Amino acid sequence: MPKKTHEEHENHERYLVTYADLITLLLGLFVILYASAKVDTPKYIVVSKAMRNFFTGSGKVIDRGGARGGLMPMLPNPSKTGGEEAMTRMEATIAEAIERMAATNGTAAGTAGEGTDSTSHIQVEMQERGSVIHLAESMFFDPGTAYIKSEGLRALDVVAPSLKTTMRLIRIEGHTDNTPIQTTLYPSNWHLSTASAITTATYLIEHHHIPSVRV
How does pLDDT run across 89-114, given as a tens digit for each residue? Predict the structure, then answer.
């Protein structure tokens, strides 16, 4: 007489394995969401400000209150060597120096009966490449020469402190008028404009001790 085979009972609890995995994943998701929502506000503000300063090129990465080592200087950013904040500081510094120079010129004019205002020829503007300081050529050089006049030297003395304190690169461009020149010393206007820029850079390096690697 053949043995009776017992039918295997179906495992109706297999779904619990999948259910447990799903619950575990959901628990992990909620833990991550909770950790993300619980933000340390002071630290978040410091990091947020540091990132904003980094991408705007203000020259400071972490504020003194948020970093143990104090301020951390940022490497020069050639594409944004100025920044609105840096230009504002530079304009303020130059404006103060201009006021002092104007007062000095006014005193000298009252004493000697004449004076040359070299401060009205200095302008600062913000361009895509950074902060640009315009110095009028007429107060710097006589036509056909690359020797800086006294008015030009005083103008350089005004802007030099701002250039010295910043860690950004300094680009000096020499420009000449449209009058053709062809002399032994300056065969072309290109030679003259280059000589003018070199003379200006040399004065800033030698008299105001601006590092040559930045000029």
Answer: 666 666 666 666 556 555 444 433 34
38 and 103 belong to one structural domain: no
Burial of 39 (C-beta count, 10 Å sphere; 0-12/13-18/19+): exposed
Which amino acid is it at 70?
G
Please give the residue range of the domain that contains residue 34. 15-74
How many structural domains is the chain composed of?
2
Q: Is residue 124 classed as helix, strand or coil in its secondary structure?
A: strand
Cα–Cα distances (Å) from 124 to 3, 22, 134, in that order, read 105, 63, 6
The sign one gets for the Cα dihedral 90, 96, 97, 99 is positive
For residue 5, is it within any domain?
no
- Phi/psi at 40 (5° precision): -75, 100
Say how far apart CA 194 and CA 189 lie, in whole Å: 8
Q: What is the pTM of this model?
A: 0.49
3-class secondary-structure state, position 15: helix
